[in-house]
Design a protein that fits this description.
The complex is a heterotrimer of chains A (about 240), B (about 230) and C (about 475). Chain A has about 240 residues and is an alpha/beta fold. Chain A has 13 helices and eight strands. The chains are: A alpha/beta (about 240), B alpha/beta (about 230), C alpha/beta (about 475).
């Protein structure tokens, strides 16, 4: 069993505002595993919205604070693959050629998405969860392609009592894409509809993901369409017993 | 400054700033960028066996996948007998061909009027032929391809204009894979290449209409390979 | 919003709602995906192949001047006339000039996206040369007066019935539901065109510097015929098509076929090095190769995005892109659509006019993953966005993100904003989805979740 770690949680802006249960679940699971959890209350956003819009100067204003604040951390765990990719993969690019580049690379090396942290760093796949339902897993694109996370969430789900996992036929973007969802809502919606149809084909009761931003978009479509399928974040599911 | 010089100058200017090396940020490959790239591709490409039997199997399977009809015989006589049978089945009346050890023997057996394409010929006459008989430079086991050239296979049109292309090949023309096929071509022709070299795999095909496979889009509808 | 962007928004909206189009493209691509994955699995090391292919293309592009000189010299040594065109206008002049010199009336083409890029057909028609596309898909869209829908499958968006109607209208042939019969109709019509044409014009997939040859990949055999029968042959290609050695084709040909069409190798891969040589009795008497820059050197001068010139025009990124399959190839309004088109069009035709293509992406990265030569496509889309901001920032967007930064960096203001948001959300149902709704881009098709009464911050504070 791993020694007790001091785990610094980075809670993305929309998790804090819309889905606090995700963060709360993470705290519960990590503490149950015997670790110390720390949360810097003054960090709100990773800076991705500005970054993805090409406003890198403005994004740096936000990211710089994150970088400085997370300097003296042992390990940083983020509740979203999308924000995780921002910090891990894109901070080095955002700060390339600046005095903070070294810090960005160092932070990148000790940043994890939640499922990745549990499985790859702590070596834990069974968190004692119980969830009686058929679920399907949606791979957020940043999780999948930027952070190379594919197995970790599935290994965790495999240990959940009562859970049946059915895979969708296709691995494809849900269409959220941050500001893309507002700048090109018609394309975003079409992509989301394809995702919902793909999920419905599995006959699952729940769509699970480690990205609440994706789930916000998918649930928003399901609700508008009056569908009964529900979305749930991986951390929330794992906290159920 | 003419266009050539202008373009070359712009390229030179652009290249003064170096670009990051290939695969510098791609996380998928897991292979660190090397210096000058080696041209040893065999370990990436589909595997091909070492024995003749393995290679023939490879060729047969790959050729079949792209709808070529591959026939292997012990002797030339058997092959030509089969060819004569094919001619009768298909009711060929006129052939296109070129002179060569294998094609001469084939044309003699078939006893049909022949449009020879390795001398001045009439395109309309070739267009009216039922089949085009040619030799080849090689058979490629890895891909099921027939390598022809405008020197080994009677020009450019013979292997593509008539509706049925028939290839006569010897067993020793089988090469294992694409890298070796290209190396063989370079060795064979030195610096005096034919004006056309073609890797033919299967008859002509298209999927342009609803992705449904149709053979004989423009080129031959059938490709039959006699190997002995 | 400029005209191009406006048209894009309109068409994208229309196509996004077109469920028939969605289903058609989905079906076509599903079939392709199965075959593609089969063939990728046959490679012993697909990822290794991608890396090696990227390195070879890097070598080619980053020594392009030397390789082009070699290429041209070898070709000329075998009697080929090599022309250089700085832009589309020069290329058109050269080609129209050749046609004029030959007194040509009829020209048959095999597939060339580069000729689409420079709008060659119109120029030729205007100068009195009739142009016929010989690739079946291109022939079909030519009859319809449309641009190609996809760089590899130009008629992907059409059903057999639509094609049958088209042939009935334009060729007077009886209607049929059989793709085979439709193909045979085209075969019969085009056969005569090959024989009658004065000039055959082709594109090229690769240009081999070492041996001075162009390489053409196809399945139909139409390019073989275009290069065999007419007395004059012209090949038009972008300068970036160079590969250093003949041996390189052993890697590129199967990779192109695998992701381009789900085949291990295409039906015809042909190398042309010159006009008919002594001892050859067919093939063109004259062979012209036109090398085109047309802003490729502009792209080259951006070292960050220079790898976009590695593109082998396979279409893999189009096939992988969820945006492409929902809005279709025509919506882009450019010769090159899909992710590669979105990346390079700003460089070829102007950043500010074509920036919208770089924003119309969720940056999912499927394109980069699919690319056989590791072009960092979605990273380039992001870089285009950044470059737009550097060149001509959108002032209100900058202001909005600056304001957001103030908010994000001040925990007190953040909490205030969350409280205000909760209040506003109570009133929201009154204006939801309507013209007054500030969240309308979202709420016109989706519900918004409620802002949490107790945020994570609140929970954490309680714990202390």
């Amino acid at each position: 069993m791993a020694r007790i770690m001091k785990i610094t949680l980075f809670i993305p802006c929309f998790v804090d505002s819309f889905y606090p249960q995700v963060g709360i679940s993470m705290v519960r699971i990590l503490e149950r595993l015997g670790h110390r959890v720390e949360f810097p209350e003054d960090l709100t956003c990773c800076g991705q919205p500005g970054f993805n819009s090409g406003c890198w100067t403005e994004a740096r204003l936000v990211a710089e604070k994150v970088l400085r604040r997370l300097r003296d951390t042992e390990v940083v765990v983020i509740a979203s693959g999308s924000c995780g990719a921002m910090v891990k993969n894109y901070y080095p690019e955002l700060f390339a050629g600046t005095p903070l580049e070294k810090d960005a690379r160092a932070l990148s090396a000790r940043t994890y998405e939640f499922s990745q942290f549990l499985v790859d760093r702590l070596g834990v796949t069974d968190v004692g969860a119980c969830f009686n339902a058929r679920v399907t897993y949606h791979d957020g694109c940043h999780s999948l392609r930027e952070m190379n996370i594919r197995d970790a969430p599935r290994r965790l789900l495999a240990q959940v009592k009562g859970l049946e996992l059915v895979e969708m036929k296709q691995v494809v973007c849900c269409g959220f894409g941050g500001t893309f969802s507002a700048k090109f809502p018609m394309i975003s919606t079409a992509m989301g509809e394809v995702k919902c149809a793909s999920a419905a084909e599995t006959g699952a009761d729940y769509i699970v993901s480690s990205d609440s931003s994706c789930l916000m978009h998918i649930q928003g479509l399901l609700d508008r369409q009056g569908k009964t399928m529900r979305t749930i974040h991986l951390a929330e599911l794992l906290a159920r017993s | 400054m003419n266009a050539r010089d202008a373009i070359l100058a712009r390229i030179k200017e652009a290249l003064r700033t170096p670009a990051p090396p290939a695969g510098a940020r791609d996380h998928d490959s897991g292979h660190p960028p090397t210096g000058a790239p080696s041209r040893d591709f065999s370990r990436f490409l589909p595997a091909v066996g070492d024995s003749f039997e393995d290679r023939i199997q490879s060729f047969r399977a790959a050729a079949a996948e792209l709808k070529a009809d591959f026939r292997l015989f012990e002797t030339q006589e058997q092959a030509l007998a089969s060819l004569r049978q094919l001619s009768a089945e298909e009711k060929w009346q006129r052939l296109g061909s070129h002179r060569g050890a294998l094609t001469d023997a084939a044309c003699e057996i078939l006893r049909l009027p022949v449009v020879q394409t390795d001398q001045a010929y009439d395109v309309a006459a070739l267009e009216a032929c039922d089949a085009g008989l040619s030799e080849c430079d090689a058979l490629v086991a890895q891909t099921g391809s027939v390598v022809v050239s405008s020197r080994s296979a009677g020009g450019r049109a013979l292997s593509v204009l008539p509706p049925h292309h028939v290839v006569l090949a010897r067993r020793d023309q089988l090469v294992p894979d694409l890298p070796q096929a290209l190396a063989m071509i370079q060795k064979k022709y030195g610096d005096h290449y034919p004006s056309m070299i073609s890797f033919i795999t299967g008859p002509s095909r298209t999927g342009d209409i609803e992705r449904i496979l149709v053979l004989g889009a423009h080129g031959p509808k059938k490709l039959t390979i006699f190997c002995f | 919003m400029n005209t191009s962007a406006h048209q894009f928004h309109e068409q994208a909206t229309r196509l996004s709602h077109d469920l028939r189009h969605r289903a058609l493209i989905q079906t076509a691509l599903e079939k392709y995906e199965v075959k593609r994955d089969e063939k990728k699995a046959v490679f012993q090391d697909w990822q290794g192949a991608r890396q090696r292919a990227a390195e070879i293309k890097w070598e080619a592009v980053n020594h392009l001047d030397a390789y082009l000189v070699d290429f041209a010299r070898k070709l000329e040594g075998r009697g080929t006339k090599v022309h250089w065109a700085e832009n589309g206008e020069q290329a058109r002049e050269i080609i129209v000039g050749i046609a004029r010199a030959k007194g040509a009336r009829a020209l048959i083409k095999s597939k060339s996206m580069t000729s689409e890029e420079i709008h060659l057909n119109e120029s030729l028609e205007q100068s009195g040369v009739s142009v016929v596309e010989s690739d079946l898909g291109e022939y079909i869209v030519q009859l319809r007066g449309e641009a190609p829908y996809h760089i590899v499958f130009p008629a992907m968006h059409l059903t057999r019935d639509e094609i049958s109607d088209l042939f009935t209208r334009k060729l007077g042939t009886p209607p049929t539901k059989s793709p085979e019969e439709l193909t045979m109709i085209a075969r019969r019509v085009l056969r005569q065109k090959y024989i009658q044409a004065d000039i055959g014009l082709t594109g090229a997939n690769f240009a081999v510097a070492e041996t001075g040859m162009i390489s053409i990949t196809e399945n139909e055999g139409n390019s073989r015929l275009t290069s065999a029968l007419p007395k004059t042959m012209i090949t038009l290609l972008g300068i970036e098509k160079i590969v250093p050695q003949l041996a390189d084709l052993a890697l590129f040909l199967p990779m192109l076929a695998t992701v381009g069409a789900g085949q291990l190798i295409s039906g015809y891969n042909t190398l042309y090095g010159g006009p008919r040589q002594p001892g050859e009795f067919d093939g063109p008497e004259e062979f012209h190769v036109v090398l085109l820059d047309n802003q490729r050197t502009v792209l080259m001068s951006d070292p960050e995005q220079r790898d976009a010139l590695h593109c082998i025009r396979c279409g893999a990124c189009l096939n992988a892109c969820p945006v492409y399959r929902n809005i279709g190839g025509h919506t882009y309004g450019t010769a090159y659509s899909g992710p590669i088109g979105s990346v390079i069009t700003p460089h070829l035709r102007g950043l500010l006019e074509w920036k919208h293509l770089s924003y119309a992406s969720s940056l999912c990265g499927a394109c980069t993953e699919a690319c056989p030569v590791q072009v960092q496509l979605h990273h380039h889309l992001l870089q285009n966005r950044r470059n737009v901001n550097r060149q001509k920032p959108v002032w209100w967007e900058k202001l909005a993100f600056r304001a957001f930064a103030v908010l994000a960096n001040s925990p007190g203001l953040w909490r205030l904003a969350q409280k205000a948001g909760r209040l506003a959300q109570k009133a929201h149902p009154l204006i939801k989805g309507g013209a007054l709704d500030p969240a309308r881009p979202w709420t016109q098709s989706r519900d918004l979740p409620p802002l949490a009464k107790e945020t994570f911050r609140d929970y954490w504070r309680k714990r202390r």
